[in-house]
Amino acid sequence: MTSRTAVPSGLVVVDKPGGLTSHGVVSRMRRLAGTRRVGHAGTLDPMATGVLVIGVEKATRLLGHLALTEKEYVATVRLGQTTVTDDAEGDVTATAPAAAVAAITREALDAGIAALTGPIQQVPSKVSAIKVNGVRSYTRVREGEDFDLPARPVTVSSFTVQDVRPGPGVLDVYVTVVCSSGTYIRALARDLGAGLGVGGHLTALRRTRVGPYDIAGAHTLEELTEDFRILPIEDAAAAAFPRWDVDASQAELLGHGVRIRAPELAPGPHAVFGPDGRLLALVEPDQGQARIVAGFPA
């Protein structure tokens, strides 16, 4: 196993398999990397597959900022059945009449999807990991508690139908979704079915992109076990954030936590690099200065 002193800082883009929790992937990465300093940028449900961005060592400081980026999914929505979890892992709680499902037109489907596109207010699934008074929502469900979750603002940039396939008493809709962090795809499935009056839930979900990191650059756990590949922290930051190169004097000031002038930076985090190409910090503009939101000392 790699020694802790030899562990490089960077990101690992994992193609998560179904049936494994995000925490399970993190545990596997800790063993492969030889360090406990590992985290992920945005949970995937056990049922879901696809891109899970893992941070190792100093790159864990990038994760909270990466989690705010846009995400892309391919999914299958089954109309005609409602489940307790809003996905295929929960028991079916209601089934619509087959005639009602068969009567859904493409025009009605497109209108239902249009209503869930753009800036929307979304009520998360009750079996989500959202905390209510310090307790996970799914824990309250398991304990039989009756409660409501408040709606939250999210943005669904695109919600596109790729295919529609009728089945016995159901209609499977294959979609792609591009959305902001915090959007629940199973809640979109639930709300689409509710809007059409037949109920709905998610039967398959694959995340194909988190910010600039897509499925083409992801590696399976089997591949990583054979060849542990890590994206160096400098490359990872340059791909995810606008780059700002500073001179030696500016680099020294930032290294001591001192704000420097940054009058021309656009809003949002920027990756700052020193003359030697090393990542120094993530900063945000604040009244003409650079405010450090994450530092990466040598």
UniProtKB/TrEMBL annotation:
GO terms for molecular function: RNA binding; tRNA pseudouridine(55) synthase activity. The keyword tRNA processing applies. One of its GO terms (biological process) is tRNA pseudouridine synthesis. The active site is at 45 (nucleophile). Its EC number is 5.4.99.25. Pfam families: TruB_C (PF09142), TruB_C_2 (PF16198), TruB_N (PF01509). Residues 241-296 form the tRNA pseudouridine synthase II TruB subfamily 2 C-terminal domain. Gene3D superfamilies: Pseudouridine synthase, PUA domain. InterPro entries: PsdUridine_synth_cat_dom_sf, PsdUridine_synth_N, PUA-like_sf, PUA_sf, tRNA_psdUridine_synth_fam2_C, tRNA_psdUridine_synth_TruB, TruB_C. Responsible for synthesis of pseudouridine from uracil-55 in the psi GC loop of transfer RNAs. This is tRNA pseudouridine synthase B. It comes from Actinacidiphila bryophytorum. The gene is truB.
